Amino acid sequence: MNKAGGPARERAKRGKSNAATLHHLKYSHRLVTCSFDKTLLFQPHGFISALTTRLDCATAVAAGKGGGTKLPEWVLPPHPPPIFPLDPALHGVDGPVPLPMSVTWQRHTPVDMPDGAVCLTASEEPDVLLLLQQDVCKRLLTTDPESNPHFRDLVASVRSLNRPVSIIFFIKPSQARSPLFEVIAKLQVDHGVRGVQQVSSVEDLATIVCNYTKAICQRPFKEGRMEATDGFSFLPSTIKRGLACSAASRLRGGGGFRFPRRDLVCAGAQTAEEAEKLWESAVRAWVHRTWLSQLGQWHGVTGEIATAIASVYPTPRALFEAIWQGSDENSSLDAVQEKATTMLAALPIRRGAGVLATQNRLGPQLARRIVTFFTSPDPLDEGAS
Q1: Burial class (CB in 10 A: 0-12, 13-18, 19+), 233
Q2: Which GO terms describe its cellular component (predicted)?
Q3: How far is it, in rounded angstroms, from Cα 188 to Cα 192?
Q4: Which of 51, 170, 187, 372 could in theory staple to 206 by disulfide, Cβ–Cβ 3.0 to 4.6 A?
């Protein structure tokens, strides 16, 4: 019996190994199909050709140097096509292409078979990308959005899906933008549309659809990266150094930059006084991490600079009060900014450690940008970025 079962076990083991092989980034683009309304085969003209070219390039890049873009021979047919045209609404709101001029994606998951082969089972990704062409855009812009029946129909269609929807406006460059901005704002703020983009060429449209496809292909490989020890590997090294203690605390506790939960923080406290101290310490640590993160977003702020600023001014409020200290309603903004810039420019910045440690000052250029951010009444002031 054992001899007879040996080959079967070997085949089953080989099937599991083969299925695991497909869970690799180089096969990610071969296991996702981009489905779309078959109308897109004909309009806008040239879209499918441009999209196919970009998808082929993305698949080749994912496969890597010397890697093939085809699935191995032990994967049972049918193999998923990279693109697939469909009649809209043919499979209901939960299926592929639920709306006219929409794009959706299907993921094909490897399943090992007893004979060592691998079959693929399809599942629908929730994301929907909706293309609105010139004629639809004109109807949406005829009147105020809330009183426009075409706008209400669009919103009703999007809400009926109960899926994350993004919209692309395919418009001419010369079309008036102000009414369109109002439509975009209402779609995102009031009606939960995930993203809205505007394009005026077939090439740009194909690039956006390709980028969405690439993101969905790589989704399984990126979902857990923020919980991994190298979760911040995509950030510049200068920012990573400033967030080192923040990242370490985040990764150990798994809490991210979310506000701490009091019941979890105080779970091990023996007395009410000890619980209060633990809670205050957790809140201060959260404020410090968040402040470091915000400082790291300024262009030119390295990890050492962010740490130096946060050590002297532990919160944004502390820095704000220091900038405005000694001023009153009679003080001019220029005088306040000049005084604060001088103060902040003298902040010592320590780099390195031990005998290699050096120390210099923040300097007026970066100090002026930070001060401008906290004092300028103009939200578009370029000097604050």
Answers
A1: exposed
A2: Holliday junction resolvase complex; nucleus
A3: 5
A4: 51
d(CA 204, CA 212) in angstroms, rounded, equals 12
- pLDDT > 70? residue 269: yes
Distance of CA 7 to the CA centre of its chain: 47
Q: Show Cβ contacts of residue 57 under 8 Å, excluding neighbours closer than 6 positions.
A: none
Q: Is the pTM of this model over 0.70?
A: no
- Strand pairing category for 128-132 and 102-112: antiparallel
User: Between β-strands 118-124 and 102-112, what pairing exists: parallel, antiparallel or unpaired?
Assistant: antiparallel
Q: Determine contact, residues 253/282, Cβ cutoff 8 Å.
A: no
The string of pLDDT tens digits covering residues 124-168 is 999 999 999 888 888 888 777 778 888 889 989 999 998 999 999
* Residues with Cβ within 8 Å of residue 18, at least 6 apart in sequence: 72, 74, 75, 110, 112, 116, 117, 118
Q: What is the pLDDT of residue 65?
A: 60
pLDDT tens string 249-262: 443 344 445 677 77
Q: Is 51 left (phi over 0), alpha (psi -120 to 50) or beta?
A: alpha
Residue 248: predicted pLDDT: 41
Mean pLDDT of 69-94: 87
End-to-end CA distance of the chain: 74
pLDDT at 252: 37
